[in-house]
Structure formats: structure tokens, C-alpha cells
Design brief:
The complex is a heterodimer of chains A (156) and B (500). Chain A is 67% helix and 0% strand. With 156 residues, chain A is mainly α. In chain B, α3 runs parallel beside α17 and α7 crosses α8.
Chain lengths: 156, 500
Amino acid sequence: MERPPAARRVDRSDAGAALVILVGAALYVREALTFRPFLRTEPLGPSTFPLLVGGMMLLLGAALLRSALRGGTPGPGGGVARYWRPGALWGLVLLYALALTPLGFPLTTGLFLLLGFLVTGVRPARAVLLAILLTAAMWYGFRLLGVRLPAGDLFR
Amino acid sequence: MLEIWQHLLFGLQIALEPRHLALAFLGALLGTVVGVLPGIGPVGGIALLLPVAFTLGPTGAMIMLTALYYGTMYGGSTTSILMNVPGEASSVVTAFDGYAMAQQGRAGPALAVAAVASFIAGTLSIVALTLFSPPLAGWAVRFGPPEYFALMVFGLSAVSSLAGESLVKALIAMGLGLMLATVGTDLVTGVPRYTFNVPYLLDGVDFVIAVIGLFAVSEVLVAVEELAGEVRPRVALQRVWLSVRDLAESWWAILRGTVVGFYIGILPAAGATIASFLAYSLEKQVARDPHRFGRGDIRGVAAPEAANNAAAVGNMIPMLTLGIPGSSTTALMLGALLVLNVIPGPRLFQQHPDVIWGLVASMYVSNLILLVLNLPLVGLFVRILDIPPRVLLPVILAVALVGTYAVNSSAFDLLTTAVLGLLAYYLRRNGYPLGPAVLGLVLGDLMEQNLRRSLIMSDGSLAIFVTRPVTAAFLLLSALSLAAPALVRGWRRFRTADVV
């Protein structure tokens, strides 16, 4: 990795991550303090380990913040052009999670594959064909493995 | 000694059962495919197959996963040699001389030596594993909770200190894994932790679901960024065969690579990738004509290929005997065993000899299957590369999602996968290694239990971690491994200052 000479700026991305980690770890520790067992059977309790982990994360968050403020290497550039595809695919994953129960496996998977292919740049006609064929293949393939996939609440 | 052969014979009986043989074959085949495919690595591939593996029972699941792991090692080198595109990190070095050989029209011998070196190294290291594991397990059987806790601390710190560029980021990744592991009902007291009154979270984060999200989903998201559209050129393939001269030339390289790989593999954290680099540089150092390396020397393919397969076997030793995985892949296998209610560690050799010896024996068998599969079929595997990634990636993602759903038939699991996939994508993109995270996730529960048991033993006194020699030694090693990167940097600065 080449390090450009102008890298001595505050690494905003790492600094932001450090703040998220610090806040997250603080909340994690605060929550750990509320764990109270009904019976005290051991010298320390259910909160010991989380407190250790949370404490460690607070220290690490501080260390990351320190190194970020001193300046770091800039992350991968490229902006929107670079991230729209992963972003769009992740959106489809989320939609899949929400739609699987109401719409059922065939419809959700078919749509997921179709839109996924369009995101990655498969030509539309081919995308439709592939989506239909692959959905059918997966439906029967997983049936064969004994996995019951939902047909969809809508169609009951 | 005799006892070991009896165990092995018993193992062979298990491995050669038609069902297990079929699973080894299937695993080897799928592994090779995963190894050849660009967008998905060995860990992602294993993660994808975990839901299927769980329907097979412990022995069957382990046999298939091991064969799969092996297969990825074989497949990864194929694309290195033919396209200069390593399928896995551990076959990066193979590309140096392998691709050069291919350009000179010697792709056939390069592929053949890679397969033969992998086979010899795999077989020899499995013999070593067979001999070393029982004594190691016998020693570790006396470990109490403090020793285990210290050993896990050592495993985690060793992995973190070697993974990635920034120690802080590696430790943060590890901490995230440990935090995820604390979600759910506390086993000792029944107190719900980090469940926020959501019943779904009471059972904790399902390991398989987490791993599919962390590895498979994020791998696809990273790969889709670099979708270029054009198909990479590859060198045409002739007959895959090895002449006697080629074999004579690479013989010592294979043996040296095996020894280096095996020892590196046993160490926690140092896996197949480091082993392949070390074997290559060793080979270059002992060669009388080091200038030939990098220009298509067959030894430059044989040594790293032997080393990465030997390391893959060596890696299994701490996982099986101590219950401490040394790499992401073995962490996944450990997690799989835990889900199947088999607890790896020294007692495994007594409690589940069928799993252990069936597994070891089927490693021999899968090695043979892979050799037979790879030499004649390389051409076929390479065809897979003709499927454009833009078609492949959405399909991999869809399989990951259906696999997630299949584990518990729960749509909540899909949300977990989505969230963890996004998290892992961020981590990958910003230089956080995922190995420590998955290790933390797998070891978190065991670590906590052993910590609490230790403190019950000592009535809450932390002195127990210092007064027991083995425990203290492991903790000292952990501190050393965490300090090592800083020490090395200081030493280098000192040396350069000396020279100037």
C-alpha cells in the first residue's frame, strides 16, 4: 500500500467509527450493570465478562480515536459510483428479509434475483429468464434437501 | 503406537462408509468450485454450506466440511496459475512462478505439480497429525478452567496480532465478536443479557446465521464493487501431466514446503497464507540459482502449494486437541461442532473417537479424491470461470439468504444476516480483519464460562491466573504476541538507524 504524503490529516472515517465504538461500548457497559441474578452463587456474576469486554472496547475506541486524530491513510475513494452496487444489493437483502414471509419464496426469490441481475448489469431479457429458471431450480433443490420454503401468506 | 493404528483403522471404516465417502466427494467437488470462483473464499463457502452440513450429524458434517476446506486449497491455485488471479490469499505466491510457467506454455506441469505437491504435503501432514494429536490431547486433558481461559486469551491475541495492518482494529473486531457472543440468556444464572425484551434474542445470535452474514454476504458486497464486466484473459490449457524430470526437480521443494507449512499451521493464528510465503522464500534461499524464481520455476509452485496444504492440516491440531481454532476456517469448524453438541478439546478423543478418527481418516480419503478429481478435470473446473461474475454474485447471495432461512425457518434470521453483512462490509472496507471477530464469536461463551469457573475455584481472587504455571505461561505468551508487532517495528527502526 502506498501512503500518499498528504495523509497527515484527521482520518474522519476512523474518527467517526471510534466515536460510534465509544458510545456503543458505554451503552454496553451501562446495560451490563443492570444484570442481577436472582441467586448469587458465584463471586462474580453475569455482568463480569461483559464489563471486561466493554472496558476493553472503551480503551480500544479511545486508541482508535487517538490514531485517527493524528491522521491516517484515506479509505478507498470512488464515492457514489463505487458504492451504489453494494448499497443496492444490500437493500435487496433487506427487502428479501422483510418480504419472504408475506410474499413467499418463489415470488421473493424471483424478484430478488431479477433486481440483483439488473444491479450487476445483466441484460433485462436474460435477467428475467435466469431469475425464473434459477428460482425454480432452488425451489426444487432445497425441497430435495428437505427444507420447507414458504409459499407465501398472501396466497393462502 | 499400535493403538493409533487401531484408531486409524476404525476411522477408515467410518470414512469408507458409502454415505461418508459420498459426502467427502461432494465436499471436495464443491470446495474446488468455491476455490476456483473469485467472489467467494473458503470461509464464505464453508459458511454457505453450514446449514446443509447440520442435517448430516457430527461425523458427516465434519467430513464434508474438511473435504470442502481441502478442495478450496486445491481450487485456489488453479486460477493463480492460469489467470494470475489467486482464488484465495493462500495461493497468492503460487501465481508468481505458476503464471510465469503458464505463459511459457507449461500450464499443464504447473497445475500438475500443484496438485501433486498438495497431495504429498496433505498426506504427510495427516500422518504427523495422527501421531502428534493424541499425546497433545493427553497433556491437555489435565487443563482446568484457568488454563483454558488463558489458552483462549492466547489464541485470540495471537490471531489479532497477526491479522491485518492495525492491531487496534484487529482487537476491535475481536471485541465485536465477543460482544455478539454475550447476547442472549446467561447460561449460569438465566439472566437475559442484551435482549431488550425481544424474545428472538433470548437464544443469542445463532452462530451459523452470524457467519453467513459476516462472511458470505459481505464477500459478495465487496466483490460486486469491482465488477468490471470484461472477462479476464486466461492461458490456454494443455494436458495436465508431470514429467519425471519435473517431479525430480520439485521433490525437495515439496518436502521442505510440507515441513514449513505443517509447523506454521500448528501455531495459532499463522495459517496457510503465511506458510506459503515462508516456504517460497525458504526455497529461494536454499536454491543455488535463486534468480530463476519468479520466472517460471517449478519449485516456486511446488513449495507454497505443499506448504498451504500442510498448514491447513496443521491448523486442525489445536482445534481438535485443545478446542482452540487458529484460523477463521477452523473457527467455523469449531463453531459447527459446538452447534452439533460435540465439544472439541482433549476429551473429544475419549468421548467421540468416531468423530475424530473418522475425520482424520476421511482427510486421507479426500486427499486422494482431490488428486483423482483434479488432474483430469482441471479443464472442466476452469470452465466455471466462463460464468460472468455479474450472474454469479446475485445467485451466491440468494443461496446465502435461503440457507439462512433454512436453519431455523425464521425470517428474523434474515434480518440478522442483513445487519451483520452490512457491518462486515464496513469492517472489510476499512481494514478490520474478520478472523478475530469470528474467533471472538466462537470462543466468547467458552471463555466466559471458564473465567467464571476459575473465579469460583479461587473465591474471586485473580491470583489464580498467575500462580498456576501453565496459565501464567499462556498469559505471558499472549502479552508477548500483542507486543510483538511494536517490538518488531522498534527493532527495524533501530537497525535502520544503525545503518544510516
